[in-house]
Design goal:
It is a single chain. The protein has 113 residues and is mainly beta. Helices cover 10% and strands 37% of the residues. A hairpin with a 5-residue loop joins strand 1 and strand 2.
Length: 113
């Protein structure tokens, strides 16, 4: 498995390379994901709910780390994203679940484009 770090500081680990259509900016994508804090505490998972999550890629509907980290994935692929605070929820955190300035870890599987 290879890990790359983007200029913004996002770390992308390619767990499984997909072989379906590629996710590009402007596309509506559907993913399964699980998110953890760096202490290992899981804070959210679409898999636990049994409900995939859909969003428009590159449209600012999700945190920047997702817009950047899902782009270029192919359907069937799985990536682990290490998202620094400035690409996540920053100094404000989120909903009492994600503390301020938290680095986030996500495993994202691209289900559809």
């Amino acid at each position: 498995m290879t890990t790359t770090t983007t200029p913004s500081g996002l770390q992308i680990e390619e767990v499984t390379e997909g072989n379906g259509p590629e996710a590009k900016a402007g596309a509506s994508v559907k993913v399964h994901y699980t998110g953890w804090l760096t202490d290992g505490k899981k804070f959210d998972s679409s898999k636990d709910r049994g409900q995939p999550f859909g969003f428009k890629l590159g449209g600012g509907q999700v945190i920047r780390g997702w817009d950047e980290g899902v782009a270029g994935m192919k359907v069937g692929g799985v990536r682990k994203l290490t998202i620094p605070p400035e690409l996540g929820y920053g100094a404000r955190g989120a909903g009492g679940v994600i503390p301020p300035n938290a680095t986030l870890l996500f495993e994202v599987e691209l289900l559809g484009v």
